[in-house]
Amino acid sequence: MKFTKIEIKDFQQFKDFELDLTYPVGHPKAGQPLEKVCFIGQSGTGKTTLLELLKSATSGNPNNYNQN
Question: pTM of the entire structure?
């Protein structure tokens, strides 16, 4: 499964967050999902939260986020 966009309106540190995961205009694959995505950041910036939200969204119950 490949994501093309992530939108989070208001959850923990994410407020009106939008991330486009497609190749940019001008690239031969413009508009297609990226092959690989890497989330890099300091501790506490939301990398794990973002991955847990994606896991929850793909499990069939996007409102069942485990905040452990």
Answer: 0.75
